[in-house]
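Late entry, written up from scratch paper. The run itself happened at the end of the previous shift, but nothing got recorded in the book at the time, so transcribing now.
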Amino acid sequence: MINFELTNEIKSILTNIQSNKEDHSVAILENYSLVDFLIAIIQIHYTEGISSIEEIHKLIDMYNCHMNERIQEVYISLDDDHPLNIMKRENDTFINTLERMEEKLTIVASKKDSSMLEEDLKIIGALYAHYNRKEKLIFPILERKQVYTLPRKIWALDDDNRTTYHQFKNRLKRIDEIEFKHIRKSFDTLNKGMKQMILHEEDILIPLVQELFTAQECETIANESKAFGYAVDVKSVWSDKDKVYQTKEKKSEDKNQNIKIGGGYLTLKEAELILNNIPLELTFVDKNGLFKYFNEITESADMMFIRTPISIGRSVANCHPPKSLKKMMQVMRKLKNREQETVTMWFKKGEEYIYVTYKGVFDEKGEYQGILEYVQDIQPFLDLPSVVKRDI
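Output as recorded:
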């Protein structure tokens, strides 16, 4: 819930910051919780777009000074392998690497040789792992806690940085063909974008996560993080050593009872085994647009489209990057309205040739029940010899 009285107080302080006035009284903020303070900042910066992230950073510094604390510090765990400490370690690595690259750029320009940046590029390329973990593991939990604007806005900025990184990398490959100023411009944009993202994460996201997330939720994030990878060495999967979790009693399920399915009968166990052995990655979104199911034919890290349990129950609208959301919603509308039976796409990903199908699911009365996505690597089919093989 947004506290608009607090929001107005913060706007007044930000106006002083923007005017470079000396007297920035933040004493009034003592009357509010840190969560209220951060939610108000989200409203001001991300929803209303009133201030820059640099001005927000100055406000946070003033808040820290007055409160005699540093909200960017991870206090819930000193373990280097806690998900939030991993994020901060990665951010330190990104900053150090970007500064090292900036120092090298002059030499790269004079020698027309980008080889000295190869290792640095790999390190910066780990922004994909860093951003993916944030978007696929942290954002779903924020959404369950009714925080929606922050994830969407940060995801859009993540995509900008991904695009700029890709552009910079491609321009470096063409160093002999293009003017160096274009390479420099791409780097400057990437450098600024990544450093601004670190402010978004460390001034707002990490403090909010610390205030809202339970140790159990952090442990779930830690357990599912490996599938996406890291930008730093992670020695172990973090767990809450003091955990005493209350687990709901599960109703006993008879997995060996036959159920009428399709043209025959299967036990629940058999149905689960079949779904997990079909050579397709299956995902089902129900009629309410909620991500409800995915099969487990392989480990998450080896999936063509990585799925993790933490996203179950998430609105499909929040599962896609802002830049592709409109297109995805159009696909869903077409399938729901039966304008098309299926929608397909295909693309190369490393050695895989990925073929994706979206299909509307309807019951015997013709009522819409949801959308099934199935994904497969068709490269093995393309590699088949022309000679027919009938023998088994």
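The CA atoms of residues 17 and 55 lie 7 Å apart.
(Scratch paper discarded after transcription.)
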